Amino acid sequence: QGPGVTGRQPILKPGESFEYTSTAPLSVKPLLDKTPVVARMEGEYNFIQLESDGVTSVSSKPLQAKLGKFHFVLPALDTA
Fold first, then answer.
1. CA-CA distance, 20 to 10, in Å (whole number)?
2. Closest CA to 37 of 74, 79, 78
3. Which of 2, 31, 75, 79 is deepest in the core (most CB within 10 A)?
């Protein structure tokens, strides 16, 4: 949690996009005999829409885009 994505707060114009890479240290002991899933994550992005001046917010309440739950899965181990 916190302001920005990986410490940045991009300002996007219509049609623009923003990509980033993030890491999450996981201290897990996988139960490979039961599941390849080692962790789950979910959350949301909060954002504001700006007027054409690029500074003034259209609304006082941020918009929210929810991220569905996704799984961290270990790749198949080569047992050969």
1. 11
2. 74
3. 31
pLDDT by residue (tens digit) across 27-73? Answer: 777 676 777 777 888 888 888 888 888 889 898 888 898 989 988 88
Distances (CA, A) of 61 to 50, 53, 57, 58: 12, 18, 9, 9
**Residue the block writes with tokens 């002991």:** 29
pTM above 0.70, yes or no: no
Nearest-angstrom CA–CA distance, 48 and 65: 11
Task: Report CA dihedral (8, 9, 10, 13) to the nearest 10 degrees.
Answer: 180
